Amino acid sequence: MKMTPMAPKCGVEISGIQLATCSDEEMEAVKQAIYEHGVAVFRDQEFSPEDHIRFGKRWGGIDINNYFPLQQDFQEIAVVKKEADQKTNIGGDWHTDHSYDQIPAMGSVLVARELPPSGGDTMWAHMGAAYDALSDEVKAEIEGLEAFHTADHIYKADGLYAQTDMGRELRGHDLKTGAVHPVVIRHPHTGRKLLYVNKAFTINFVGKTREESMPLLEKLFAAALTDDNQCRLEWKPGTVAIWDNRTTWHNAVNDYQGHRREMHRITLSGEALAA
Ligand code: SIN
After folding, report:
1. Minimal CA–CA distance to 40: which of 274, 240, 259, 271?
2. Among 11, 73, 101, 122, which is most exposed with the fewest C-beta within 10 angstroms?
């Protein structure tokens, strides 16, 4: 197994392994690499839907997504697709999956099933590198803060997606979500400090209104995205990416209008987060 960084501070490409048949030792090395680098990319994988589900269960469990359409024959698999005639894609801005859950999903295993002729890349940004780069003043300002996260404004019946041509595809309009997490968490396995707020789902700091929270939130959102803490994946048939939601933000680039893209996603169960 060979590991090649995708960028200095985010992402690793792992070759010489088939995820469907890897040994326990290889699985453990893959986990550690993802905890550290935030995302790992695997090329030329033979990875059927059955392999995908088996791998998710082997990792430690699957959280079924409440909003995306599910694969008809494999309900553990969420379908992240954009038809050729749709303009909006799923996940087309920076976010962290499931931060609105009390115990957010650990990460995702995303498999390319149908790709546009070009474009449709996915980007990640490393929240350990983002935290490290904050000034001492900002680190002191956010020490001990907690923030409230929800997805209701995005998925409810008149939410952000409902106002787009993606609205008809999604489920879970009546769900109510909400969770409070520390603004700086420690990675449950590496202990590294990570900035844990995101543009899509973080609404306010506990004890402050949205309006009062926005100046500092905007400052953190801007600090989270520097050119040197990001990596970018150009998908090819047979590519699988696995990322850690605690360690990264991601963004599905929507630059392939007029073409179809279909990805299959399994969301991996996580553990409680702590400062
Ligand atoms: C997502 O999980 O947010 C979508 C990622 C992608 O489609 O590249």
Report:
1. 240
2. 73
Selection from 196, 163, 162 nearest residue 67 by Cα? 162
The best mutation among 65, 77, 80 to test binding of ligand 1, ranked by most ligand atoms within 8 Å of the C-beta, falls on 80
| Residue 248: Cβ within 10 Å count | 30
Kindly state whether residue 273 falls inside one of the protein's structural domains.
Answer: no
Query: Does any domain span residue 33?
Result: yes
Domain-embedded: residue 275: no
- φ and ψ of 82, to 5 deg: -135, 125
We report the CATH number of the domain holding residue 171 as 3.60.130.10
Least Cα distance to 147 among 244, 273, 249 occurs for 273
Structural domain range at position 125: 2-268
- CA distance readout (Å), 192 to 101, 127, 185, 195: 21, 10, 8, 10
Q: How many domains does one find in the chain?
A: 1
Share of the chain above pLDDT 70, in %: 100
**Centre of ligand 1 from the C-alpha of residue 251, in Å:** 7
Asked whether residue 274 is domain-assigned, the answer is: no
Ligand 1, residues at Cβ distance < 6 Å: 80, 90-91, 108, 110, 122, 250, 252, 263, 265
> What average pLDDT score do residues 13-27 get?
98
